[in-house]
Design brief:
Strand content: 25-35%
Radius of gyration: 23 Å
Number of strands: 10
Structural class: alpha+beta
Order of helices and strands: HHHHEEEHEHEEHHEHEEE
Largest sheet: 6 strands, antiparallel
Number of helices: 9
Strand order of the largest sheet: 4-5-6-9-8-7
Shape: elongated
């Protein structure tokens, strides 16, 4: 009989270790947490009965572990259908923070992979946004930003090489760019101008973000400015639409007297 769309795969079940390290409930929570983090949003978890048999414990023990995941918003129960993976939606607000700082404030560990960096001549659009001449050398940094190891955004940014000549020598893959700019170059970032649009991911971009080709994405174009009013960076980054919501604060126009 063919497997239904929501039925868990045999591979996912077989990958669950039966042996225990520590208490039963703690071990099951650790294993299920890892399984949830490595599963797609909406994936169906094995049933309580199947998990109980796999671990050799009472269904009540399994139920308690799933309750703990549900309380953290990591799974959702649907009566009559099962328990599904639920990846949290992060809010991208107007507050000016680095990706690393934002993730730490959410209790998540920021990171990066697929790091690429090089110095190249500024294209006309990049030069105009950095307030430099076309062809001037710029540092281009591109990487997949992660939170707890999960890809969140494809970050691409440009900085004037004349202002930050040693940036690519001191910048490492997992570093916060803004922290490096502050600690090494004494830059105090104060504000940013951002434009948010809906983007269609290319096949390559979708693979790098580990999402399906039809997954929506936000294209966030940012120009960051320091406390002296000078442009520091110009970037165009893609954020996963299935993991982010954009928050904005709006006010009515002032009333004339």
């Amino acid at each position: 009989m063919p497997r239904t769309r929501h039925e868990p795969s045999d591979g996912a079940l077989e990958s669950l270790p039966a042996e225990r390290n520590g208490g039963k409930g703690e071990h099951i929570r650790d294993v299920l947490t890892a399984m949830v983090l490595n599963s797609r949003d909406g994936a169906l978890l094995p049933s309580e009965r199947v998990l109980a048999e796999r671990f050799g414990v009472a269904r009540m023990t399994v139920r308690g572990s799933i309750d703990a995941l549900e309380s953290k918003g990591m799974v959702r129960r649907v009566p009559g259908r099962g328990t599904f993976v639920q990846h949290p939606t992060l809010t991208h607000s107007e507050i000016f923070r680095s990706f690393s700082e934002d993730m730490r404030m959410r209790g998540m560990t920021p990171g990066a992979k697929s790091y690429r960096a090089r110095t190249r001549p500024a294209a006309r659009q990049v030069a105009a946004n950095l307030d430099i001449a076309p062809g001037d050398p710029t540092h281009y940094i591109e990487r997949i930003r992660t939170a707890d190891g999960i890809p969140m955004a494809l970050e691409r940014t440009n900085l004037a090489a004349a202002r930050f000549p040693s940036l690519l020598k001191v910048m490492e893959r997992d570093d916060s760019l803004y922290e490096v700019l502050g600690h090494v170059f004494g830059v105090r970032l104060e504000s940013a101008r951002q434009t948010v649009t809906i983007a269609r991911l290319t096949d390559t971009e979708a693979k790098r973000l580990e999402v399906g080709e039809e997954t929506p994405a936000f294209l966030i174009e940012r120009i960051s400015v320091d406390n002296m009013g000078k442009v520091v960076e110009y970037g165009r980054s893609l954020y996963r639409g299935d993991r982010y919501a954009i928050q904005m604060h709006v006010s009515p126009p002032s009333q004339g007297g």
